[in-house]
Amino acid sequence: MDAVDFSTLGLLLFVAAIVAMVTRRLKLPYSAGLVAAGIALALLPLGLDLRLTPQLIFSVFLPPLIFEAAIQIPWAPFRRELPLLFALVTVGVALAAGLVTAGMHYLIGWSWLGAAFFGVLMAATDPVSVIALFKDVKVDHRLQLLVEAESLLNDGVAAVGFALLVAVAAGEAPGLTSTASKLATTAFGGIAVGAAVTAPLLLLAGRTTDRLVELTLTALAAFGAFLFAEHFHMSGVLAALTAGMIVGNIGWMGSISDSGRPAVLGFWEFAAFLANSLLFILIGGREAAIPILTILEAAGVATLLALLGRAAAVYPVALLFRGGRLCVPVAYQHILWWGGLRGALALALALAIPAAVPEREEIVSVVFAVVAFSIFVQGLTMAPLVRRLGLRREEESISRSSADA
Hints:
Distance between the termini: 37 Å
Structural class: mainly alpha
Number of helices: 16
Shape: globular
CATH topology: Na+/H+ antiporter like fold
Radius of gyration: 20 Å
Strand content: under 5%
Mean pLDDT: 86
Order of helices and strands: HHHHHHHHHHHHHHHH
CATH class: Mainly Alpha
Low-confidence stretches: 395-405
Number of domains: 1
């Protein structure tokens, strides 16, 4: 899909609509249905071009998905949870990456560099998959905030680790000072870009009550912040997250008109639906090409290590906050662990691994296998687990957008 094929695009949108209707009726995760549909389309002799590239993920799909999720995050509870979130995305990600890296090196025999690339990919949960899941599975507000915000924030850490490994693959030897500098530049630079792009656009929006202009300015904020940050090797996810939170918490205080607010929320909900639909169908199309028999052992070990790594990221960190105001209930910890899905972000980074890494092709295939496990096994069992733990929220028919309105 490098060039727009409108007949293929129309078919994918039609399939997405049918899948949405069927999965809602069967009470199944929408993302799992889309991936299954993508696999089916790829296996049919239709001659469809279902290629998934890092450029497509970063330039087209991620900005609206991250921005739409961020609009819904209220600042006060987010700020209250920041110490816990910070620990999860730093200490937690480091523990997870270390465990997965060591496991793939000693158990599968990958080089330290290849294992480290895979460890970084598996350490960060994917915001796209997590957000899509929790649109279907309604849980307590605090738990939803923790799961979604953590998945959005830990992308910055994963991006830094990936960039450092790319430098190592190119022959550089980054030290502690350069590593810390890269982390600060990527994370805080992304936040600064999000604020710098969005603030003047909101000021401009405050001078009009035209809903179409307001929609256009929020689109510029979402895509502009993300793409500008990525261009300068900063975190596009953190930039889009910042942009969305500014619009969702400050924009409603006068910059976006009263009549414009429901239009903005409705537009971004629809944009996220389209991006989710196309992305997961394309993931399914790529899943159909996995040489599963040749990577079966590595995929099985990798999946187990990914789950163990996620456990190492959640339970020890939660223990640090036991007894305090940010104490994480055990049931919440189980959801944070099992709900730590992998998806589009891991795939995009895997496809961007340098060719100099000996295990590159195997890593890409194994990542797709782990993503398939994430979507089908973890995704399909999340709702029963939430019900069993007594965490399901009752307002099934009320969207977060209308609840916040």
